[in-house]
Amino acid sequence: MPSSLSDFEVLYTIGSGSYGTCKKVRRKADGKIFVWKEMDYGAMTESEKQMLVSEVNLLRELRHENIVKYHERVVDKKRQVLYLIMEYCEGGDLGEVIKRYERDGRHFEEDTVWKTLAQCASALNECHKRKDGKSILHRDLKPANIFLDAQKNVKLGDFGLARVLHETSFAKTFVGTPYYMSPEQMNKLSYNEKSDIWSLGCVLYEMCTLRPPFLASNQRELAVKIRMGQFNRLPARYSTELSRLIGRMLNVECNARPSIESLLSNPHISKYLPGSIFLPKTGVTASSQATKDSTEVAERERKCAQTELQLQEREVMLKEKELRLEKLEKELAKRFMQLEEQEKQLEIGKEWRCIKDAGLQARDLNIENRPNINEVTTNKPLTPILNRAKRLPDSPSKHVSFEESKGKENKVMSIHTEIASRREKEATFFALRERERNNTEYQRRKELRNRLEKAKHRATQLRAAEVETRMRNNLLIAN
Q1: Could you list the active site residues?
Q2: Which of 28, 102, 189, 281 suits 227 as a labelling partner, its CA being 20 to 30 A distant?
Q3: Distances (CA, A) of 134 to 5, 164, 209, 217, 381
Q4: pLDDT tens-digit profile of 393-414?
């Protein structure tokens, strides 16, 4: 007989969101604790109602130990409210645990990360590999939708955005939480089960670093970072195997990401799964050979990761050196301009002093040889002087002599000649010094440019080597 609302006692509200409200309830008959998801379908659009019906149908079909169990539903037709009675997870959700660890300065142990990966992969395997040939994509895999029971086992829940896909089909709708969306979802392209693998990689990365792999201030910037697929390495406390596996799950090429089968067959993951259903069905010899191959691949990955780390460190050093060279070049250019300005001011001052000295000397000559008009006009009458000048045989009225004027002119010319030669010597001196300085600065700047070009070329070579190393690693991992 179906239950009614009166069969349950509401204890308290767990949380609420756009979907509705979650409350912790107790069944009066046996005292068992459940969670009901309260959703008002009267205010929903037709598409939202269809999504709600899809979620209920999915929850009824999915029966797995790592998926939140659906018990029953209660419909209040008068209030148009649907109550989904679900399994109660005492450990809360993974998002709350991550926030608590970040607040307390703690970190997840690597075994916990491997266990979470194994149980989430097992739950996704149940969704992706249905017996009826259909696949169910979760499409909103994030820490807030991963719940924990009392034994800290993972329970995957909240299938409100899930979609049923037939074999070889691809979804095209733009849904999910942006921080955990795959590149193909950001590009609004078709996507399949590998999109959930990307989201799971984001969750594992956040467990290791306590922050999502891609952060941005707006959705456009976030989309750019996700399309590039570049993120920081995991902390050194985690093994190379875990780091490399998360890196493969966060590959921007969906075909390069591991499948659910390859994840479950990984020796680090299969040991956390109960029973032997997900363990490799091989003999002892094959198992030992697989372990040996896995060890060799791990060693190669470790060496490649070490080489990659060295290349990154060298690239950082080259960038710092390049910045120092650019700063030095700017300082030299600024100093060169200051010297040029000072020399121009010195040349202008010297030319002005030369002209001023020449003018003062010429004025002094004119003043020294100029007759005193006051003496001529005041001491002696002008008429007797003129009459006597007419009577003298050597007076200027009879004989004109240019020796005195020539002497004055020669003296002025010699002064001008000396000034001109002095200017010429100074100009030659400044020209030689400018040429020497220009040659020295030119050689220095040329040397700096050559060093800068070599540094850029070396950085390019290192980036090419890094890309080649990554490609080689991908080939090794694929093989």
Answers
A1: 140
A2: 102
A3: 34, 7, 35, 38, 139
A4: 544 444 445 566 666 667 777 7
